[in-house]
Amino acid sequence: MSLTQGIHRANQLWPERTALVDGELRYTWKQHADRVSRLAGALIERGLSSGDRVAMLGQNSAAMIEYYFAVLWAGGVLVPVNTRWSAEEVRYCLEDSDPSIVMWEPELAELAQDSLARCTKRFATLPPNEVEAAIAEAAPAQDRRRTGSDLAALFYTGGTTGRSKGVMLSHANLIANAMNAMANMKINGDTVHLHTSPLFHVAGGSRPFTIALVGGTHVMLRNFEPESFLATIERERVTLTIVVPTMLRRLLAARTLESADLSSLQLLSYGASPMPEALLRAAMQKMPGVAFLQSYGMTELSPVATVLEPRFHVFDGADAGKTASAGRAVVGADVAIVDADGRHLGCGEVGEVCVRGPMVMEGYWRNEAATREAIVDGWMHTGDVGYLDEDGFLFLVDRAKDMIVTGGENVYSSEVESALYEHPNVHECAVIGIPDEQWGEAVHAVVVAKSAEQFDADEVIAFCQQRIARYKCPKSITVHDAELPKSGAGKILKTELRKPFWGGSQRSIN
Amino acid sequence: MSLTQGIHRANQLWPERTALVDGELRYTWKQHADRVSRLAGALIERGLSSGDRVAMLGQNSAAMIEYYFAVLWAGGVLVPVNTRWSAEEVRYCLEDSDPSIVMWEPELAELAQDSLARCTKRFATLPPNEVEAAIAEAAPAQDRRRTGSDLAALFYTGGTTGRSKGVMLSHANLIANAMNAMANMKINGDTVHLHTSPLFHVAGGSRPFTIALVGGTHVMLRNFEPESFLATIERERVTLTIVVPTMLRRLLAARTLESADLSSLQLLSYGASPMPEALLRAAMQKMPGVAFLQSYGMTELSPVATVLEPRFHVFDGADAGKTASAGRAVVGADVAIVDADGRHLGCGEVGEVCVRGPMVMEGYWRNEAATREAIVDGWMHTGDVGYLDEDGFLFLVDRAKDMIVTGGENVYSSEVESALYEHPNVHECAVIGIPDEQWGEAVHAVVVAKSAEQFDADEVIAFCQQRIARYKCPKSITVHDAELPKSGAGKILKTELRKPFWGGSQRSIN
Fold first, then answer.
1. Does A214 touch chain B (CB under 8 A)?
2. Could you tell me if A375 and A478 lie in one domain?
3. Chain A residue with minimal CA distance to B327?
4. Residue B472 is assigned to a structural domain of this protein
5. Crossing angle, helix B207-214 and helix B62-73, to 10 degrees?
6. Contact (Cβ atoms closer than 8 angstroms) between residue A311 and residue A281
7. Complex ipTM, two decimals?
8. Same-domain pairing of A417 and A324
9. How many angstroms separate the first and last alpha carbons of chain B?
10. Whether residue A362 is found in the same domain as residue A444
């Protein structure tokens, strides 16, 4: 079974129903199937072979959905590129994924051109102003219907060692996720899904597969703004969407929330970042007709491993306290807590969260060493630290990989530290997440300067912005007089550095 | 992902919840996992290797569910044998499937022993009186976790050419079916499923996989009797079950239906046989709190290809008339109508129903020629004849394979005709289905005798009963004076023979 199958099915069952909405643009399933097959034809005419990658710098637009399914239809592999990256990061992603064609949207032309100019290899391109002509002129392609362990997408994820890695997800991986989503969120042909979480992350980016599979409706929203979000839900009678806590916080602050008609919205799924209980309570109170569902996972898990169902979103009774968990294993997932020697631990014992099942990625792209380290005997080692309660609910207590989640984006401290160490006046540094009202966590650096008098925090932040994406750069820097506190083994004790910011209590992850 | 995965998950998430109920017998998931792993250990100690078959003559009992999952846990392949077969038919199934171990329940000892005695090969056995000791003594086995296209079961299906064929279903086939069932019927950990349709047919026999996957509760009922059926639903608070129309007819006639507490029953799924509209209307009226869902498919499709959702069970408004259809393609299924040359036909055009998708069997066991004939370019040719309406609903109009459905059992005319032709006084014969109040259709033979005076219908029926299962034998025989009506090509015109019984109108299939 291929990720494109649902397009054929929807085109047979309800060709005249709406497949895709993007502002004024509306396509029926019949039109969508036609455009996808023609764009696939255009890609094949430009030399795409089965298994070739096609990179795209795109927003949450109709063009992005058409890119998704045309590439798969043509037998290719998606590489949705993070549009928040620096040109240097995009260059790395392009050279690493080695696409046979590079695409972008007009709004991202500058980033695309800067990145392409930095590449030593010349890539073939299909620029945005040629796409409509290509669709009009191309003969519709036959769906190549790749399936099973055939590669469907590379989603790039932040690396602990400074470099982003391409996570290889197969058709079977993403179908396993879609079938679970279908059952857990009651997704079917009547579902109208608002795609507002970025499609270049698999959290938002796996949803188009589910919607296509059941023949629902894709509604696109390029940038999350509370006003347009609410207006789109009203206008298109959206039934389902996915948000990160940062979006929810902004939504709750919106003046128009009270008067918005959310009667169509049945379920709001969230994840990717810690959700404070106060925020969840406020959201549930302000949107009483909406069910909430939490997902936990990671790119390497296509991405969902556990869900906290709507019925556990309560603060009283026997199930009180479960909202602090990440929920329970989805159907098909084995979730285990293991110690440093790989031994499985019992209820309540804290260790690394490991997951096995059809959602575990095929591996890291051209990086067998990293794959072997991450997947042992079929178990994906998430790097997250947690425990299972006696009801099988997963509670996360820390992230072994020293990751900061800011506005739904994962930032690996080591990558930020690498950028800081390039600065001539940085003697020693440590990057941590600190509480932030808007972003959940903010990136903060603690630095020992070579010359404290000459240290200019703004200049150092600007220096970082030349090297890594804006959202990864420190928002603030503290200069530390003495050497940073270290363990006996010489490892910087970040827990000590975090204490002043988190009031000495352990950082809450969920 | 393996069909046993759900046992591990349920044992982790809710070890103390009820997994399995059979009369007074009750096992929690913890007990069930323990017994299954020990029975698997016992099978392995008796020589079971990965991919070996284990045959079982069993009713819908706890023993049957434990057989199911222990065999899979041990890496084996299920062969659930039809208990209504004659010893000769069971012998054929055993010799064809070539199991490394044969099991049976005490009630079926005579049939098992008769069949084994007829086999030229000696098979290893695990007799029912040794099972408890085997479970007690064996060390728990590690789950061999076969997966993907690894073979999980052989379900034997009636053959058009007289011999039953083993349908090879893989773990992936049955998981595809289970995931669809999960979404379509809202099956989850709270589901309490009554297994009353025979588990040796895949219609009933695929349900245990779904229930295990989500960690629901299996409730067993050996024989369908309206009184015990209703009493079990009441006692165990059953939420879901599957019936064939014959069962429904008997249920509606039951005195106790009016007073039965069906408040727990959410959904009743049906299929496998024509459902007359009057019967459906009566059932919906007498069980107003129950949703109805129709499934259509065949053993070779694991088994479901289309479903008619509860919302289309209406007789007024825009969707009136859809109850006469078999519903629409499930997620992941391509359904097409093709003509004799394999060309895909348009809406309303009548041709053979073909299905493609992850539910299509791996093939027929040790019968590549039949597999090649049945599956062409991935499309399973069902032998059923029908059309798709403009909304993609499948309407069946006839069965190309000349099959009779009686009480939920498929009977192939050719097999019955072969038995009749062995009788010395049968010159020519044709077997057809005729309307029957209780069984939907009854098997009827039209015979031209060599000597009409000496023809004894009862004796000929008894003669058939020596050769084929009782349910396949003619219930009645008409003796025809002249030669049977034939087409120009010399094919017997069964439509002519059916006319007197069906009032000249076309036989309704759904």
1. yes
2. no
3. A13
4. yes
5. 70
6. no
7. 0.84
8. no
9. 35
10. no
The whole-number pLDDT of residue A400 equals 59
Q: Which residue of A has its CA nearest to B331?
A: A214
- Determine, yes or no, domain membership for B250: yes
Q: Is residue A509 part of a domain?
A: no
Q: What is the mean pLDDT of each run of 10 residues along chain A (510 residues)?
A: 97 97 98 98 98 98 98 98 93 97 98 97 97 98 96 84 85 97 95 96 96 98 94 98 88 93 97 76 94 95 97 94 94 94 92 96 96 96 92 83 80 86 90 87 93 93 92 94 78 82 49
A508 located within any domain: no
Q: Do A362 and A456 fall into the same domain?
A: no
**Residue B85 DSSP label:** S
User: If residue B79 lies in a helix (H) or strand (E), which one and from where to where?
Assistant: strand B77-80
Range of the domain at B324: 5-332
d(CA A492, CA A485): 6
- A359 and A467, same domain (yes or no): no
Predicted local distance difference test score (pLDDT) of residue A228: 96
A342 CB within 8 Å of a chain B CB: no
pLDDT tens digits, one per residue of B84-142:
999 999 999 999 999 999 999 999 999 999 999 999 999 999 999 999 999 999 999 99
Read off the pLDDT of residues A174-196 as tens digits, 9 standing for 90 and up.
999 999 999 999 999 999 999 99
Q: What is the domain count for chain A?
A: 2
Residues of A in contact with B1 (CB under 8 A): 176, 332, 357-358
Token code pair at residue A198: 């970025």
CA dist list (Å): A249 to A13, A225, B481 = 39, 11, 86
* Residue finishing a domain among A386, A411, A439: A386
Q: Can you give the pTM of this predicted structure?
A: 0.86
Q: What is the CATH number of the domain that holds A218?
A: 3.40.50.12780
DSSP symbols for A283-346: HHHH-TT-EEEEEEE-GGGSSEEEEE-GGG--SSSTTTTGGGS--EEPTT-EEEEE-TTSPBP-
A38 Cβ contact list (under 8 Å, min separation 6) = A134, A135, A136, A138, A139, A140, A141
CATH value at residue A423: 3.30.300.30
Distances, alpha carbon B168 to alpha carbons A379, B112, B149, B256, B372, in Å: 29, 23, 10, 41, 14
Measured between CA atoms, the residue of chain B closest to residue A355 is B9
In order of A9, A188, B45, B124, the CA distances from A214 in angstroms are 8, 5, 45, 47
**Interface contacts A/B by beta carbons within 8 Å:** 76
Contacts of A183 (CB under 8 A, 6+ apart): A331, B179, B182, B183, B186, B187, B188
Q: What pLDDT does residue A277 have?
A: 83
Q: Are residues A338 and A207 in the same domain?
A: yes
**pLDDT one-digit tens code per residue, A465-495:** 998 899 999 999 999 988 888 776 667 888 7
At A508 the pLDDT is 37
Note the Cα A136 to chain centre separation in Å. Answer: 33
B380 contact A CB<8A:
no
The answer on A176 and A107 residing in a single domain is yes
Query: Quick one: B68 and B176 in the same domain?
Result: yes
Question: Is residue B379's pLDDT more than 80?
Answer: yes
